[in-house]
Amino acid sequence: MIPVSSPDNTSATHMPSVGLGLWKVDPASVGELIHEAISVGYRHLDSACDYGNEAEVGKGIERVLTSNLCHREDLWVTSKLWNTFHEPKYVRSAIERTLRDLRLEYLDSYLIHFPIALAYVPPETRYPPGWFFEPDAPNPSMQSIKVPLAETWGAMEELVDAGLVRTIGVCNFGVSLLRDLQAGARIQPSSLQVEMHPRLTQKKLLRFCDQEDIAVTAFSPLGAPSYVSLGMAKEGDSLFMHESILAIADAVGRTPAQVLLRWGVQRGTAVVPKTSQPKRLAENISLFDFSLSAEQMLVIDGLNENRRFNDPGDFCEQAFNTFFPIYE
Length: 328
Description:
Elements: E1 2-5, E2 12-15, E3 20-21, H1 27-39, E4 44-46, H2 54-66, E5 76-81, H3 88-102, E6 107-112, H4 149-161, E7 165-171, H5 175-184, E8 191-195, H6 203-211, E9 215-219, H7 225-228, H8 243-252, H9 256-266, E10 270-271, H10 278-285, H11 294-301, H12 312-320
Parallel strand pairs: 3-4, 4-5, 5-6, 6-7, 7-8, 8-9, 9-10
Antiparallel strand pairs: 1-2
């Protein structure tokens, strides 16, 4: 469990260290996947408006709750504010739509998905809104707008006040943006979700968040595999066949995936691996009856290449005809 600071900074709640990432999960199968996940012990679900499957995720959650597989208070459900809803007047309607789709009265965590503000797209026009402003235009592109993050954050704080979410945080932020956000926040960011794996260890960012009591969730904790099918990584980028990982896996009697996930958990982060295969669910959560030695942790740390697979500075231009770097 990962402690997550409460909005009043007087107590902490706890987020399960391993969650089920729902990005790229087929809407037709996600409900059954959630049922299987809860059955084998998952209590952390990582969702987002932009994933395009929240209505089906909601049916899955409703099924496990009505069948008494678990209670609502046992679940940690995260969702995210999409880029087109950054203007403060749209923030509440965005979470209300997500709550309706998820069939919940509140979220455990609501995160700003990217530090990217795009022009509003009404839900009746298109939902999820996606990245393009007008997908059917002759040369479609993203349409950015100027909305200070502090204004979006103020509207996020109001969601806490209204009881719609227990904690609020951000995704895809670096230290500078976090510092700026903290400086003007009435409610401090409780959590950060970022790409983090042995190819991208982000040690300074992790150390800063530990210092500031910001819980960290690593998305894409296995690295390259989620991106190969998107053309954003190559098969050879995977660590599953890396000799160091195979040697450690053999030494501890686990799979390479379990070694990579255990490395993430042992660093103090939550991990949200994605799988569409029920048979992988039990493997991905079976991380707490073994540990890696200090030497093994250092070997894995040494695989860092500062390699970011999910970089808007690359994919926005390649896929959405718009150059939009955020990390440089």
